[in-house]
Task: inverse folding
């Protein structure tokens, strides 16, 4: 069962909006998981990356677009993948 | 506070079911009122859609109402979307300047049952300073207090295996 209002708005929502929200939340959860597992704080991360904490903060703000380059830098410093991509080849249609 | 019903709003997600409240004699439940209202305002349409996706897709389907996504504590309720800070280091991340707030309560602090209320536009740092939101927030706190009380005294119970809230007699129709 889903509220009719929710269903209507969801049906009208462009697919890219839903993908963006889902991916962004996944990235937050993933970074959180890595920081917790490694016991890092924002300050630790800034020291490792030789940046000011405010700069890290700026990168990670939602209103500052999180670019693939930023994610790559984070992955390099955290030593763990933040996002995964599939290397499976797409099957050609008949 | 007048009598209100607690009714199912969405149970199609893999991780979390959502309930809402309906005021006595109201034509619409509180959460539908919120989404209908802000979806009809062009300025907030995109934010409304993002918030709905955050609730149904990210919480409902992908992660459940986990602490990291339920971290904007505002007295008895939590404001959605999340504060967007990771737990360690307080990194501002996801939605630091998101214009809308929808109030919610995790039932017994579980990640799989959430009650959604109404909300509004967050126009200042505090709820007291946000004209649009103040009454909705106060109402949400009152609903939440009454629901917590009903859980404490056994008027309503959680059916853990079915991810449901029921009355003490096992009825799905809940009036508080």
Result:
């Amino acid at each position: 069962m889903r509220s009719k209002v929710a269903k209507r708005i969801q049906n009208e929502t462009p697919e890219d909006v839903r993908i963006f929200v889902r991916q962004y939340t996944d990235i937050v959860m993933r970074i959180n998981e890595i920081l917790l597992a490694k016991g890092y704080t924002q300050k630790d991360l800034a020291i490792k990356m030789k940046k000011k904490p405010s700069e890290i903060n700026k990168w990670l703000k939602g209103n500052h677009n999180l670019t693939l380059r930023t994610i790559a830098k984070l992955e390099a410093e955290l030593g763990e993948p933040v996002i995964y991509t599939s290397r499976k080849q797409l099957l050609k249609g008949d | 506070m007048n009598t209100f019903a607690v009714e199912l709003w969405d149970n199609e997600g893999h991780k979390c079911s959502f309930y809402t409240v309906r005021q006595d004699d109201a034509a619409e439940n509180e959460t539908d009122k919120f989404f209908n209202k802000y979806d009809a305002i062009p300025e907030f349409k995109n934010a409304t859609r993002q918030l709905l996706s955050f609730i149904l897709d990210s919480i409902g389907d992908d992660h459940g109402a986990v602490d990291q996504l339920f971290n904007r504590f505002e007295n008895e309720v939590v404001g959605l979307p999340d504060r967007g800070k990771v737990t360690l280091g307080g990194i501002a991340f996801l939605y630091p300047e998101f214009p809308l707030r929808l109030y919610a309560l995790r039932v017994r602090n579980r990640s799989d049952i959430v009650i959604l209320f109404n909300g509004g536009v967050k126009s200042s740092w505090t709820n007291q300073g946000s004209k649009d939101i103040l009454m909705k927030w106060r109402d949400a706190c009152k609903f939440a207090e009454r629901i917590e009380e009903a859980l404490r005294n056994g008027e309503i119970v959680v059916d853990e295996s079915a991810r449901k809230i029921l009355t003490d007699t096992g009825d799905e129709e809940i009036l508080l």
Notes: Residues 85-94 of chain B have pLDDT under 50 and may be disordered. The two ends of chain B are 10 Å apart (CA to CA).
